[in-house]
Amino acid sequence: MISDQLPIIQIVILLVASPLCVIFRNGNWAWAIATLSTWTVLGIVSFLTFNIIQEGPISYHLGGWRPPFGIEYSLDSLNIYIILLIVFIASIILPYSKGIIKKEIEHNRRHLFYSIFLLALLGLIGIAATGDLFNVYVFLEISSLATYVLIGLGRKRQSLKAAYRYLIQGTIGATFILIGIGFLYSMTGTLNMSDLSTRLQPIIDTRPVIAGISIITVGILIKLALFPLHLWLPAAYTHAPTVVSAFLAAVSTKVGAYLLLRFIYSIIGPSLTFDSIPLLEILLSLASLAILVGAIIAIFQNDIRRLLAFSSISQIGYLVVGISIPTVTGLTGGIVHIANHGITKGAMFMTIGCIAYSVGETKLKNLKGLAKRMPFTSAALLIGGLSLIGVPGTAGFIGKWYIVQAALDYGLWPVAIIVLLGSLLAIIYVGKILESIYFSKGEIVFGRVEKLSFYQIIPVWLLIIATIYFGIHTDLTLGISIEASNTLVGGQ
Length: 492
Description:
The chain is an all-alpha fold. It has a domain at 288-492. It is built from 20 helices and 2 strands. It has helices at 6-24, 27-55, 77-100, 110-129, 133-152, 157-188, 193-200, 207-224, 232-239, 242-268, 270-276, 279-299, 304-324, 328-359, 370-373, 375-389, 395-409, 413-439, 454-472, 475-489, and strands spanning 58-61, 72-75. A two-stranded antiparallel sheet has the order 1-2. Helix 3 packs parallel to helix 14 (328-359) and helix 4 (110-129) runs antiparallel to helix 5.
């Protein structure tokens, strides 16, 4: 049946659509191909999500070779949740990109942008879908190489510099992951994640295995941009084309969080990981620093994009706190915050893209009184900011609530205080944005406001509405997150 082939068809569609964008060598045709293929994949992923919720995990064997001898695509409640987020965001961003990239990417490069965007999307989906550890590395390289190019496609010279910095640090992270995979393979003789988990149990305390676990973890943390391994992120988010910034902020680091979850809980096992290596203490310490340092630095930024970039570093800290607490409540908080923060931050970066398109500015001092000239865009920024703070009724509140509850249940009250303090600091940097665009009485620096099209306005508000919806109706996000958390920790 054709439905049995859907796990691989979603990859094949993007793999075929990407070169088609180049063959047509026309920006409008490339946009149409990319949008149609992405929305088709969204339909496939939605169907797979429904099936997994109703019938359980799906295992697809490439070429008919059964694992561990063949390559497996293994879809369960955790990774289909991540894939759905990735494709949903891409499906919203592509219509939005049609007008936005006119000012950011040269006309003769737009077909290349859509081709490479599809490759980045393919790589991110593949990372989450594969059940083979080496193929994680392969798809990681596909998405990373595509992302480097996407960042460098901007008209500004800083875009190339940001892409080069990300290239260097991303390559270091990928090298760590590959070396760590080599250590584990040399000790077990398998790359299938499920088989690897079984074979590691008797030898988990051996030095090569501990070295492999440690090296892979460092590589994943670089990709995740957890403080202090975050140095690539501010420049990438600030100087990339705004379409690329929105996509990266919404899904790129979230895939890094998924990798950390999968590696700790599915391959190594939480008890063995935290007993053999003091990973709990290390991750919680780094995550706590990320929450505070990212928020504090964000307060002193005068460019909205750079401010939100450091805000993302702080929000990554929340994700890692949830991941590091090996209870159903902790993991639920971390997993639900992956999607909720992705939707919120994607909406905010898309809103900033609208502002940059209309007035040519993202510096706060030049946006005084913006709300009077762009009331709907400013309102979108306001709602997104409330979600970043974690105001009840918004998506950002749900994950933080569960993370604080898990920290208190686990006896980590200092961590709970840091999470709450991070939200208080978020009030300051979000308030800084709102003060400038709503309450500042200074002279407005920008002149004529260029009118936005429906291609730009509707996608932004779809994500803003989703930010409110998933803050009130939590059945989907919390339901999948709780199911995934129970599976990962065995109902602890």
